[in-house]
Amino acid sequence: MRLARIATPTGPRPVVQDGDVWAVVVDHHSPGLERTGETHPVDGARLLAPCEPRVVLGMAHNSGPADRLVPPQAFTKSARTVVGPGEPVRLDPAAGKVVVEGELAIVIARTARHLTPEQVPGVILGWTVGNDVTAYEQSALDDKFTQSKNGDGFTPLGPWIETDLAVAGVADLAIDVQVDGATQAEASTSGLAWDVVEQLVYLTSHLTLGPGDVVLTGSPGTSAHVVPGQTSAITIEGIGTLTNPIV
Amino acid sequence: MRLARIATPTGPRPVVQDGDVWAVVVDHHSPGLERTGETHPVDGARLLAPCEPRVVLGMAHNSGPADRLVPPQAFTKSARTVVGPGEPVRLDPAAGKVVVEGELAIVIARTARHLTPEQVPGVILGWTVGNDVTAYEQSALDDKFTQSKNGDGFTPLGPWIETDLAVAGVADLAIDVQVDGATQAEASTSGLAWDVVEQLVYLTSHLTLGPGDVVLTGSPGTSAHVVPGQTSAITIEGIGTLTNPIV
Fold first, then answer.
1. Do B76 and A77 touch (CB under 8 A)?
2. A161 and A215 belong to one structural domain
3. CB contact residues (below 8 A), chain B span 81-110, against chain A
4. Do A144 and B60 touch (CB under 8 A)?
5. Domain range enclosing A72
6. Confidence at residue B82, expressed as pLDDT on a 0 to 100 scale
């Protein structure tokens, strides 16, 4: 099932895909996904970021087996960095060079704290494509990543939330990162050092997550340099493609 | 003028103090602070966190003159850590020892990016008391501060937003940190290495702030150890006192 948010003449709406229409729902987090009766054709609908996180977390150094030799670590991103499909990623020349990073993103369904591994599947609403845009020259100057991770439009999410993948089903999904139509990086979620269950057990041992929050699971070799005028397109197998202009 | 948010039988309300009543306003950020006509007596009103930030930033190592020898640095806190006066700060034994940190908190009025020093006063809605609760043994394990700064209730704010202090007026405000009624730390905002103007110029050179966002300006020697069962009370001259139980 695909959950999304779309723009309508009377404002944004949370929706679920029913065949060739987006059916408006009361709330992505309401039991049974109660439909309001309002529908919009899938063709031509403008998709927004599929959720409105209060908390956006990214996993640091989670790119390969060697990263299991050090403890997991995460950073928080400003919720104001979230944009949807087609919205611009704005580069600031003063921030230096920038990469896009294609990442599996977890969307949280409900309040989650001190999770056991067995509890993890129950708090996941679904999965979307995340782009953890990073001004990486700033990371060297600021170990807290505040300077590198929070530029305008630095967290594209979308195109929708896929709910039909189980936790086991995201263990080996292909991630393809294209810039202007040419593949710049190809990898798989199997390259992540700490898997989704381990990440949510770790993160919720330190803080509370809630409905709509997002965890960017890490970049297993899925980054690509970008400059203004280019377009990034990140595809994750079984989810979809997230496309954003770089300006 | 004091802006606050109060609990009412029909939900939270943004308010402004008019003598002995809290007058409900459409929005703290609406021009002219348009009143709805609804009022509540100041006596007995339950105060909530005075704003609902999407972004909470804290200044790192901003405690004295030596901190000017290294570049300014900041960390982001989960917006889910924000609580109001009287709400509990919840300690997790697994996180180790905890301090409360009494800090002047800036509340942002409007979208702010790439500010010049001259533009800073125009984006400040007002000031409140912030408590940047920190599980400091976690800071040594996690230089990103994700583990140390995001426990439940780790960002008490309140009791209200004082709008009558100019930027120059917050340069030397006394901060008093009490635990169970005994003063544990006394200092002044004059001890901050980077002042409010420098902070907002620095932060908005890297990211966008918006209405209701909060910057915790740093702890100039205003921290105190706490354990469950105690109560912290932080007073900033000209603003008020923020009291929270530690559980």
1. yes
2. yes
3. 81, 94-95
4. yes
5. 56-245
6. 98
Q: What is the ipTM for the molecules in this complex?
A: 0.96
The verdict on B178 and B86 lying in the same domain is yes
We report the CATH number of the domain holding residue B149 as: 3.90.850.10
Of A57, A95, A143, the CB nearest to B143: A143
CATH of the domain at B10: 2.30.30
CB contact under 8 Å between A94 and B143, yes or no, is no
| A150 phi and psi angles, rounded to 5 deg | -120, 20
Q: Letter for the amino acid at A147?
A: Q
Query: What are B192-242's pLDDT values in tens digits?
Result: 999 999 999 999 999 999 999 999 999 999 999 999 999 999 999 999 999
- Residue A31 pLDDT exceeds 90: no
Task: Name the average pLDDT for chain B.
Answer: 97
Interface contact flag, B207 A74, Cβ < 8 Å? no
Nearest to B144 among A60, A152, A210 (CB): A60
Task: Classify residue B212 as exposed, middle or buried by CB count within 10 Å of its CB (0-12, 13-18, 19+).
Answer: buried
CB atoms within 10 A of CB A30: 10
Between chain A and chain B, the number of residue pairs with CB atoms below 8 A apart is 91
The number of C-alpha atoms within 13 Å of B150 and in the hemisphere containing its C-beta is 28
Same domain, B33 and B92: no
Residue B73: per-residue pLDDT: 98
Q: Do B55 and A80 lie within an 8 Å CB cutoff?
A: yes
Per the structure, the count of domains in chain B is 2
pLDDT band at B40 (very low <50, low <70, confident <90, very high): very high
- Note whether A74 contacts B: Cβ–Cβ < 8 A: yes
B36 plus B65 within the same structural domain: no
Q: Are residues B28 and B61 in the same domain?
A: no
Give the residue among B208, B75, B148, B58 at the shortest CA–CA distance from A146.
B75
